[in-house]
Design a protein that fits this description.
By secondary structure, the chain is of the alpha+beta class. Helices cover 32% and strands 35% of the residues. The chain contains eight helices and 16 strands. Strands 1-2-5-4-3-6-7 form a seven-stranded antiparallel beta sheet, with no helix packed on it. α2 packs across α3.
């Protein structure tokens, strides 16, 4: 029994007879090798224009390729051999059109399918067959509806993903446009500035007077020998102060300019040439307040030892419990902290011990090493220095506060608590919490 021929097998046999590989045939048709492979495996059907092109390449009719008309029994002569692309032979239609034989084959194919469709349209079925077919149609419709619903759901999910990607692209583009606009604004501002560079810094301060001393300079982009400059400072409360600047080669400077301390000082400058004045903003100084002109201090004792003591009082037959406290292992850190302005330098550093609310220390110990470290490095870092120890006796109800007392080169004295202890009436040691940063001798903990 002869094996049934399919379209894919006929394409494969014709291709091999023409001596073409799948890749070569695909290149001549303008399709991929995978597409040709699917046709030959009957996993896909080529379009009509590809069938026409293959019939010309293989030198067979479309009907023979589709299996609706037999191939000629005799061997094809040399003139019937496959054509090279672009070659024309007698009886062949122009490129892109069908020959008479190809048109006849297409008409035969169409007639065949129309006849098959007519048979399907007028079947003679029994009652049972009609019921079965109806049930099948309903089942197919239900399956199609479920498939459609699943497809719509997947499509909706895909649309959500696409919309999210679009939003992401829009956000990225908006960010890039904003950044570009900012760069353009900066370039325009820089181009319109009167000064190429400017600088302002605090060179001194006076806490008693509540003032800061500034040095301000600005380099003009253009100037003349008769150009003069005036610096202006605007405080947060609206007050304004001005200082005339000295100029040399376009650089204008104001030194030892004293201004009130303020949270925000806005600086600007104006240039006057031949009676024409133009002004421009320079920069803003922030946090020029008394509390910001102080050193950053931290410290403590790593060694703490308590020992019970007993005392007999004549007024009471019961002895009273006291405790002997020994502190050691001093750690101390002194720096400028986060102050970006002019900072003081320590001129005296002492460890002081205060009992209760006394304003005079019970004892004090200088720390000369701290001054030496500051002079060498501009900061102090001391950890667990055992050379500094302190011993005292605490009675019930008494408090002991250990603090580092620093006097800076501007005469300001500050205290920073290192540790504090209280002995209650029962002889238990208590440590006060939330020690104040602005503590002074005499303050109650």
């Amino acid at each position: 029994m002869r094996e049934q021929q399919t379209l894919g097998r006929r394409i494969q046999e014709a291709r091999k007879a023409a001596g073409l590989s799948q890749e070569s045939l695909g290149e001549r048709l303008g399709v991929s090798r995978q597409a040709v492979s699917k046709w030959e495996a009957d996993a896909a059907v080529p379009e009509l224009e590809n069938l026409i092109a293959m019939s010309r390449i293989f030198g067979v009719t479309i009907g023979a390729l589709l299996g609706v008309e037999p191939e000629a029994a005799e061997d094809r002569s040399e003139k019937d051999a496959p054509e090279a692309p672009g070659e024309g032979v007698e009886g062949t239609a122009p490129a892109g059109e069908l020959t008479d034989r190809e048109l006849a084959a297409v008409e035969a194919i169409a007639k065949k399918y129309l006849e098959a469709a007519q048979v399907v349209q007028n079947p003679r079925w029994s009652r049972k067959k009609k019921i079965a077919v109806s049930a099948g149609i309903c089942g197919a419709a239900l399956t199609a509806a479920l498939a459609l619903g699943s497809g719509l759901s997947a499509l909706g999910s895909r649309l959500d993903q696409v919309q999210s990607q679009v939003y992401g692209i829009e956000s990225s583009v908006s960010g890039q446009i904003g950044a570009l606009a900012g760069q353009i604004r900066d370039l325009l501002d820089e181009d319109s500035n009167l000064f190429a560079v400017s600088q302002a810094r605090v060179t001194d301060y006076d806490l008693a007077a509540g003032t800061v001393t500034l040095q301000v300079s600005a380099q003009a982009k253009s100037w003349q020998d008769n150009t003069t400059a005036l610096f202006t400072a605007l405080l947060s409360d609206g007050r304004q102060f001005s200082a005339e600047a000295s100029g040399k080669n376009g650089t204008f400077t104001a030194q030892n300019w004293t201004l009130p301390m303020d949270q925000e000082i806005l600086l600007s400058a104006s240039l006057t040439t031949d009676g024409v004045t133009a002004a421009d903003q320079l920069e803003t100084l922030y946090d020029c307040l008394p509390g910001n002109f102080r050193l950053d201090v931290w410290g403590g004792f790593s060694q703490t030892d308590w020992a019970n003591q007993w005392r007999d009082f004549q007024s009471d037959s019961w002895p009273q419990t006291s405790k002997k406290l020994t502190l050691g292992g001093l750690s101390l850190s002194i720096s400028h902290g986060g102050n970006t302005h002019f900072s003081p330098s320590p001129s005296q550093v002492e460890i002081c011990f205060y009992r209760n609310q006394e304003t005079v220390p019970e004892s004090s110990v200088p720390v000369p090493e701290a001054l030496e470290l500051w002079a060498e490095a501009g900061f102090v870092e001391m950890y667990n220095w055992t050379d500094y120890t302190f011993t005292c006796e605490l009675l019930p109800g008494e408090t002991l506060t250990a603090a580092v007392c620093i006097t800076d080169d501007h005469g300001q004295t500050t205290w920073t608590i290192l540790c504090a202890y209280r002995l209650d009436q029962s002889g238990n040691v208590q440590t006060p919490q939330d020690l104040p940063a602005d503590w002074q001798p005499g303050d109650l903990l």
